[in-house]
Structures are given as C-alpha cells and as structure tokens.
Design brief:
Low-confidence stretches: 23-30, 60-68, 204-213
Helix content: 25-40%
Oligomer: single chain
Strand content: 25-35%
Mean pLDDT: 85
Number of helices: 13
Shape: globular
Length: 407
C-alpha cells in the first residue's frame, strides 16, 4: 500500500511540474525571443520617434565554427513612443523582443537637443533595461552610428559594446556614462546629466602621414584625425542642462571631468618643456589620492576649491637631456603643475559660465553650507552654479622613466 501511495505521489508531482513549466517554456523559449543589443532614437518626419533596434545572432558563430563576425541586423520603426515602437516591431518580426541584453542606447544630437526626459523615464521604468546600459549622444543619426559600430577585434557586437567604454580608465577621453547615472542626475538638485559623445570617423581624406600634435587634446567624436576602416568612435562627453543637450566636451576637457570624479587610473599628457621653447614632454600621470573638493558660499556666490595630487614619469626622451637631474625633474614637475591647473581651471569655467551645468556634482559638497535640504533647494544650486569662482591647486611629483635609473 505504501508503494502505491509513493507511486501516486510521484505521478502527481510530475504532472504538477509539467503544468507549472509548460507555459513558461512556450513563451520564454529562446526561439520565441529576439535579443536587442542596442537601440537608437532619431527624429522622425512621420511620427515622434524613429526607433532603431539592433539584433545579433550569436549562434551563427558557434554553428559555423569560424572566427567570422556574427552579423547584426537593424530594424527601424516610426512610432509615437518607445513602448509603441516595441509593440510594432514585435508584430513585424513575429517574436517578442528582449531588452535585458541591451548594452547601448543612442540618441541623435538632433533629438537630444529637444530633451530626452520622457524617453529616459520610459526606459528606466522598463524592468528589462539594466541601469548599467550606456547612453551615447551621436553627432550623426543614431541609426548610422549603430550601423558603423563594427567590432574590430571581437566576433560579437555584444562584446564590443561591453568593453568600448573601458578606455575611460586609462585615457580619460571618454566616460562610462550609464542610463542609471543619467536618471539619478536628472532628478538630482545638486548635479546635471552627461552622456558619451559618439560619432563616426571621417575617411573622406587620404592619410598623409602627418598630424598636428597641438590638436591632439582637442579631438572629439566626428572631428578626429583617425584614419582606417569606417567605424564608430566615442571621444568626449555630451553635456546636458536638465534633460536637453547644451554642449560638448573635447578629449582634454573630458580628461578634466574624469580627474575630478576620480574615474581615471592614469593618463598621458604633453606639458611644455621648461628648457626648450615650443617643445613638449610626454608624461604619464597617476592620481595619488582622490581630489579634494571644498565648496563655500560667499556673499551668495559659490567658491569652489580643488586640490589634486599626482605622481608621474617621463614618457618621451629628448637627446642630450639629463632626466636624472633633480633640478630638471623639479622644473618638469612645476611645468606639469601649471599645465594641469590651467586646463582644469579652463574646464571648470566652461562648465559654469558657458554651459551652467554642474556635471561634476559640486552641489553635493555645497549642501553642507545649509542647515536643511529645504534651504539648499531654495538656493537653487543648478542656476547659481554659473556664478561660481574656482581655485585649483595641483601638486605633482615627476620622476624619470623606469628605464632611466642610476647605475
């Protein structure tokens, strides 16, 4: 009798399990899903939005057994909203699209100027969109940017999107700007949003073998000296006031942003050679500690002090120069101090006077000047930031290259 009860119990358990998972299997089976790896949003002549969805088929690589890149497919739909666009594309492809693996959301510059808060709120409210998804503002149309996002050293476009912002930690010329950070800044009273500045390299001119090193630090997406296979590039930052795009940062200005936020592990800069006019020395500089920020309110005006400490080593070698001499290294350190103080100060006044956008979040340090949050909100930091004055102090210690040491 006990064996009979056991058999009945096992049979009922199997039936219950089959009933519980049969529906989910039919609806969540990977064959019934279409994974979106990137989205692009442009201005539409027919409707509110032109939404592009980029898909890829990872199985094509494993099935072929070759190292060829997995092809990506882009569909664009005109719709009144993102939700409506998703519904239309579901109908068109006959599968339910899945956004949980979407790595990048791109807005065209034309669209971002009009304001993107509605789209950001819609996307952040979608449980499939991860807060770590990168936000890119493209100088070209969003669809064209996606079309030109071709991995050079990866087989899968998804892998490329995962690592394309990694250079921010060792160049500082871009930033890992995510939709989560954008949303937090959008609702914040003490900071403003920013996004990655994207574009496409211009290969219309033939490479001549010459470059202008003075312009290296002022490059940005869609205006660089890169030459080669036409592909997307991500250099610089897009600056927002509230939800509308109001300006851009070039590579050296983005480096300043990264230094202040302590988002860069080390970076390369060219500073004036103290012993030779119209000559520069390449230095690899590393922050020793996080920058110290102090904000005071003096006669109703923000006064912001920034202290940065660096160590560094000489990269470029000049014939006949004694880079082991202590006096020489002191002069180079002073030149580095002056250069970094200059670019940081220019950057800070650009964000305040020209853009009036506190993308570095100095307002968070300013809150200590007020007894309550209500007093801080009444002060209206986002508008008062344009009246700010700055004092920047840099202390760097430069040593010779590790290959140049006393014997």
């Amino acid at each position: 009798m006990n064996n009979l009860f056991k058999k009945i119990f096992i049979a009922l358990l199997i039936v219950m399990l089959l009933l519980a998972f049969s529906k989910s299997y039919s609806t969540l089976n990977i064959d019934n899903l279409s994974v979106v790896v990137a989205m692009g949003i442009d201005v539409s002549d027919k409707n509110n939005l032109a939404i592009s969805f980029q898909f890829t088929n990872p199985s094509s690589v494993s099935e072929s057994g070759t190292s060829e890149q997995s092809p990506s497919i882009i569909y664009t739909v005109d719709a009144s909203s993102i939700s409506s666009g998703i519904n239309l594309i579901n109908t068109y492809i006959g599968k339910s699209i899945n956004l949980s693996h979407c790595k990048v959301i791109t807005f065209s510059e034309e669209f971002a100027i009009q304001g993107i808060s509605d789209e950001i709120y819609t996307l952040i409210n979608d449980t499939q969109i991860r807060p770590s998804t990168n936000i890119v503002i493209s100088k070209t149309s969003a669809r064209y940017y996606l079309e030109q996002s071709k991995p050079l050293f990866e087989n899968l476009i998804t892998k490329y999107y995962e690592v394309f912002s990694a250079s921010s930690s060792y160049t500082g010329f871009t930033s890992n700007a995510t939709i989560g950070d954008f949303f937090d800044s959008l609702i914040c009273h003490s900071c403003e949003p920013y996004a990655i500045l994207g574009g496409v390299t211009n290969n219309s001119t033939e490479y001549t073998g010459t470059t202008n090193s003075e312009n290296d630090s002022s490059t940005k997406s869609n205006a660089s000296s890169l030459s080669g296979q036409s592909t997307a590039e991500n250099t610089g930052l897009a600056v927002f006031k509230d939800d509308a795009l109001i300006g851009e940062l070039n590579s050296i200005e983005t480096l300043c942003f990264s230094i202040i936020r302590n988002n860069v592990d080390g970076f390369l800069v060219s500073v004036p050679n103290p012993n030779k006019a119209n000559s520069y020395i390449d230095l690899h500089v590393t922050p020793l500690i996080s920058p110290k920020v102090k904000v005071n309110i003096i006669n109703g005006t923000p006064y912001i002090q920034l202290d940065c400490t660096f160590t560094g080593r000489i990269y470029s070698i000049e014939s006949g120069a004694d880079y082991l001499d202590a006096n020489m290294l002191t002069q180079i350190s002073n030149s580095c101090n002056s250069y970094l103080e200059s670019i940081l100060t220019k950057y800070l006044y650009k964000t305040s006077k020209a853009l009036n956008s506190d993308i570095n979040g100095f307002g968070k340090s300013a809150r200590k000047n007020f007894l309550t949050l209500e007093q801080f909100y009444d002060y209206n930091w986002r508008e008062k930031y344009k009246d700010s004055f700055f004092k920047v102090d840099v202390d760097s210690s430069i040593r010779s290259s590790s290959l140049l040491t006393e014997s």
